[in-house]
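Minutes, project check-in
Item: structure for the 307-residue chain
Input as provided by the requester:
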Amino acid sequence: MNTNLIKKSTAFIIAILFLLLLSSVVATGAMAYDGGPGAGIVSTSGGNLNVRASASLNGAIVGKLQKGTYVTLLEKTAGGWWKVEYASNRYGYVSGSYITAVAGSYRANVNVTWGNLNVRSGPGTSYPVIGSLPKGTGVTVLTSSGGWCRVLFNGTRTGYVSSQYLGVREKIKWPVPASGKINQYFAQGRHLGLDIGAVTRGVAGDAVISATSGKVVYSGWLNGYGYVVYINSTYNGQPIQLRYAHLKEKSYLEPGYSVNAGQWIGSMGNTGTSSGVHLHFEVRIRNSSADCIANADSRPVNPINYF
């Protein structure tokens, strides 16, 4: 056999094996962080990182983050931008080129039996309290050791909480599978839910699904909500209520019906007090396991913490 041919064939095989090994190493490295909600570190070469209102250099600057700051990552866009929580209940976009994802970080929720969970400056009860988190609040766990977790909370703040009061966070389904557009975020006392926009602006009809399984307690027309459905459910054992408002028309669901997560509820519309086609989606903590239809029977919380 031709010696040169053997050498060329051997070199080709070695090259293929090297490429396979390299791809395996890259894939293994990628497994450390799956791109889902977690934590990132601002890794600019110098100066601050601009937070913008949209995923573009043309977006208005709404905030700035210092180099080395931890920030809560919510979603990565196709263009390589991260949607982030850059302060408590304040959201924007940053270039993914200047974010280093924290491998192993994961979302959890506060699971105290009563009251709030203290956040401390160090891993122990002797350290000062620097924050307080109500039950159900979502946090990002950075590290865990000796019964204490270092967590990222309120967007960019870090501290320590007892690990016995954290639970791996359940997730609810996104209620509009075809659209990830958010027209307006939750703002305590001002806007009590998420406004999810239509795939095609101004065009009604996008499918709305149930984010969890549960029981329908209201379905029909209700003041500013227009056509709305209330579904009572539980989240990590906590009674919650989900509201789907401004539907195109009355849902086929009736009070007393049971629904499954992912079940079709109706179509996105523009009914009630609405300035355009969208779904107004609320998550509320119920005061008890009763049906709880009145506003006074529950309190609104940020839906972002439940996805």
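Outcome recorded: The chain has three domains: 38-101, 106-168, 182-306.
No further action items on this chain.
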